Amino acid sequence: MIRTGNVEEMAGQGGIADPRLGGHFRVNAGGALLVGGRTADELVSQAGGTPLFVYDRAVIDAKIAALRAAMPGSVELHYAVKANPYAPLLAHVARQVDGLDVASGGELGEALASGMDAPRISFAGPGKRDEELEAAIRAGVTLNIESEGELERTASIARQIGRTLAAAVRVNPPFDLKGSGMRMGGGAKPFGVDADRVPSMLRRIGELGADFQGFHVFAGSQNLNVDAIVEAQTQTLALVADLARAAPAPPPVVNMGGGFGLPYFPGERPLDIERIGNTLGESLSARPDILRDTRFVLELGRYIVGDGGVYLTRVVDRKVSGGETFLITDGGLHHQLAASGNFGTVIRRNYPLVHAAQAAAPATERVNVVGCLCTPLDRLGEKLMLPRADVGDLVAVFMAGAYGRTASPERFLGHPAPREILI
Ligand SMILES: *Cc1c(COP(=O)(O)O)cnc(C)c1O
C-alpha cells in the first residue's frame, strides 16, 4: 500500500529520498509530481502522448557520481546495456562510464553508436552466433567466451578474417550471490565455463595465440545485501587469482560483475555502497601478486538507471466490479512487464505508483490500476490507496528506468509502442 503521509512536506526541498516517489522525485507547491522540474502533463505534451517513459539524467548522473565516490578510485565502472539501451540515454551514460557490456550483436551496434571506444566494450552472453562473433572481432571488442565450443568457433572466425581474437573467459563460479533477484552463477548454468574447466581452456587460449583479456564473473543481480555482495566479491578475487595461475599471462582485466540492487518495495533499504567500496578497497589492496597489474571492473545496469525512470500512463476507463474500483490505463505489461510482477519475481508487489497531478494529496480510495491488455496478468497496482483518479488523469509508475521497454513483450496484443524521452 502506498501511503501519502508527508509527501507535501517535501515540496520545494531537494534530494529527499522517498520511496513513494521512487526515491528521487519531488512535488510542486500544488502537489503535482515533478520529474526534472516538469509536471507529468508538461512531459507528456513535450513527448507527444502516452504511454511515456521519462528518464531523468540528473538522477542517473547522481547515481554515477555516488558510485564513483564510494568505489575505490582504481575500480572501473561499466554499464550493462541490457538494462536500458535507449539511444540518447546510452550515449549520455557512455560519456560517464569506463566501458559498456553488451549481450548481443544488436547491443554491440548500439554500444558502438553510443560513442564508446571499441576496446572498452565487452560482449558476453550464451549462444553468440557466428555473425555476432565476426562483428565483435572486426570491431575489436573483448569477447567474454562462454564455452569451449564458442572458443573454437571464435578462434576459427578470427583466423578466417585475419584478425587477433581479444578473449576473456566468463567463469561460472562455484558460488552464487546469495539473495539475488536472479541467480546467474553457481551450479549448472548456461552462462560461462565451470571454474574447474577453466584451466584447460586457458591453455587452449594460449595455444590459439589469442590476446588474453582476463576474466568475467557475474554471480547475480538485484541484491540489497551488502554482506552477500562483499562475500561474492571476495570469493571472486580468490577464484580469479587461483585461475590466473593457468593463464597465458596475468589477467589484464577482471570484470567482477555487480548485482547492486535497488529498493522497490516498502521495507527495502538502499544499498550502503560506501561499505561495499571500503571493503572492496581493502580486498584489492591485499590482492595476490598475480593480480598486481589487473584492472578491476564493476558492471552495473539497474543500479545506474533503474530509479531514474518514470512510466506515465493515462486512465482510459474507471469501473467498479465486485465492489472494487479499477482504473484502466493505456499502458501495461507490454511496456513495463516488471511492474506487472511477471519479470523475475515470485510474489507480486506494487511498484511505487502515484496519481501524477496529485502526488501529495491524501489517499481517499482503494483502487486497482491495470493495463489495457486483455489478460489478468496486466496489473500495475493492486489494492492500493490513491486520491481519486478519473478518466484522463495520468498515473506515474516509478522504478521504470531499467528492464522496462526492452524487457517487455511490446508486440503482445498489438497496442502502440511507448514513447521515451531523456530529460
Ligand atoms: C544483466 C547483466 C548485468 C546487469 O545486471 P544489473 O542487475 O542490471 O546490474 C551485468 N552483467 C551481466 C553479465 C548481465 O547478464
TrEMBL record:
<dbReference type="InterPro" id="IPR000183">
    <property type="entry name" value="Orn/DAP/Arg_de-COase"/>
</dbReference>
<feature type="domain" description="Orn/DAP/Arg decarboxylase 2 N-terminal">
    <location>
        <begin position="59"/>
        <end position="306"/>
    </location>
</feature>
<comment type="similarity">
    <text>Belongs to the Orn/Lys/Arg decarboxylase class-II family.</text>
</comment>
<dbReference type="Pfam" id="PF00278">
    <property type="entry name" value="Orn_DAP_Arg_deC"/>
</dbReference>
<feature type="active site" description="Proton donor">
    <location>
        <position position="374"/>
    </location>
</feature>
<keyword id="KW-0663">Pyridoxal phosphate</keyword>
<dbReference type="InterPro" id="IPR009006">
    <property type="entry name" value="Ala_racemase/Decarboxylase_C"/>
</dbReference>
<dbReference type="InterPro" id="IPR022657">
    <property type="entry name" value="De-COase2_CS"/>
</dbReference>
<feature type="modified residue" description="N6-(pyridoxal phosphate)lysine">
    <location>
        <position position="82"/>
    </location>
</feature>
<dbReference type="InterPro" id="IPR022644">
    <property type="entry name" value="De-COase2_N"/>
</dbReference>
<protein>
    <submittedName>
        <fullName>Diaminopimelate decarboxylase</fullName>
    </submittedName>
</protein>
<dbReference type="InterPro" id="IPR022643">
    <property type="entry name" value="De-COase2_C"/>
</dbReference>
<dbReference type="InterPro" id="IPR017530">
    <property type="entry name" value="DCO2ase_PEP1"/>
</dbReference>
<dbReference type="Pfam" id="PF02784">
    <property type="entry name" value="Orn_Arg_deC_N"/>
</dbReference>
<feature type="domain" description="Orn/DAP/Arg decarboxylase 2 C-terminal">
    <location>
        <begin position="56"/>
        <end position="401"/>
    </location>
</feature>
<dbReference type="GO" id="GO:0008836">
    <property type="term" value="F:diaminopimelate decarboxylase activity"/>
</dbReference>
<dbReference type="InterPro" id="IPR029066">
    <property type="entry name" value="PLP-binding_barrel"/>
</dbReference>
<dbReference type="GO" id="GO:0009089">
    <property type="term" value="P:lysine biosynthetic process via diaminopimelate"/>
</dbReference>
